[in-house]
Specification:
Blueprint: H1 8-18, H2 29-53, E1 59-64, H3 69-85, E2 90-92, H4 102-111, E3 113-119, H5 135-142, E4 151-155, E5 172-173, H6 177-187, H7 190-233, H8 243-252, E6 254-256, E7 268-270
Parallel strand pairs: 1-2, 1-3, 3-4, 4-5, 6-7
Helix pairs in contact: 2-7, 2-8
Length: about 300
């Protein structure tokens, strides 16, 4: 049963099994218990978000295509066909996340794919079709000689149109599904597939290990926060007044793919490449009882 679907007593039982805490007796018990559960639920929610956001960076193939809706649908259908029939992993332009490092992400897509299928349609170079922000730069990158060995043009309706930079590169016609699967299995060899699968397995294992370390650190932070507040301010203190600030602090202890571990005020586990992992300074919480004109409790 998922944690969020449990009743509160079961949630508390599960939380204290993983994160034993010493809570004060009544009449203050329930407010501290509520505070503890809020912190623990944040740990669960943050971990679920990190699992959803985790993306592999190794693929058997990628598909470069225009932003035209027909081409986008063709690329997605092609990827689904190969993933369901051959069990190989693919990505495409539409999967590149927009942001500060968009061009780098698009380049990584090419570099980390064994084969680069280019959907050769008139839309690819049409001036009337909107383009991805990285389109021009990526087209230039694809023309580099050391990448040509990876490129395979895809012709949805036969080789009626071929962009100039794809000239003299043998392509595939993708009008017949069964024929396409056979042709692709001939250019993406089993040995290459096994190499990609092994790299993805290693990345997944590294991610899972670091996520487990991160959870342990967050659990420790919860224990330190509760014991520290009780020691500093006594059992009559209501920690729920500061639950928002504390939850934001736990949220700041994050697994980050791009941030440097030198950043202050937060725990960073750098997952770049899933090879080397650096852990930044521990984030601690500070509370104080105050009047209306006093500064905030947590900083």
């Amino acid at each position: 049963m998922e944690f969020h679907s449990m009743d509160e007593s079961d949630q508390y039982r599960m939380a204290t099994q993983e994160c034993p805490v010493d809570l004060p007796p009544p009449p203050n018990y329930h407010r501290w218990r509520s505070f503890f559960l809020s912190l623990y639920m944040q740990v669960i929610s943050s971990e679920e978000d990190e699992k959803r956001n985790f993306k592999h960076k190794d693929w058997d193939f990628c598909v470069v295509h225009s932003m035209h809706e027909t081409d986008r649908q063709t690329a997605k259908s092609f990827i689904r066909l190969l993933e369901t029939t051959l069990g190989i992993f693919g990505t495409c332009n539409g999967d590149v996340a927009l942001g500060e490092n968009t061009l780098q992400a698009a380049t990584t897509m090419i570099q980390k794919s064994n084969k680069v299928f280019v959907l050769a349609t008139r839309h690819l170079e049409s001036q009337t079709v909107p383009t991805y922000v990285f389109h021009s730069a990526l087209m230039q990158e694809l023309q580099r000689p050391n990448w040509r060995r990876k490129i395979i043009p895809l012709h949805p309706r036969g080789p009626k149109y071929t962009p100039l930079f794809l000239a003299n590169i043998e392509g595939l016609s993708i009008g017949n599904d069964s024929r396409v699967v056979e042709l692709v299995s001939g250019v993406i060899h089993l040995e290459e597939q096994m190499q990609v699968r092994a790299r993805r397995d290693r990345a997944q294992l590294a991610f899972s290990n670091k996520l487990r370390e991160l959870r342990q650190h967050r659990i420790q932070e919860i224990q330190e926060v509760i014991s520290g507040l009780r020691r500093e301010y006594g059992d009559d203190y209501d920690p729920n007044e500061q639950v928002t600030e504390t939850l934001q602090s736990i949220e700041a202890i994050m697994l980050d793919d791009t941030a440097s571990s030198s950043g202050s005020g937060r725990q960073v586990i750098n997952m770049s490449g899933c090879q080397s992992v650096s852990v930044g300074p521990s984030f601690h919480f500070y509370g104080s009882q105050r009047g209306n004109d006093d500064p905030p409790d947590f900083e």
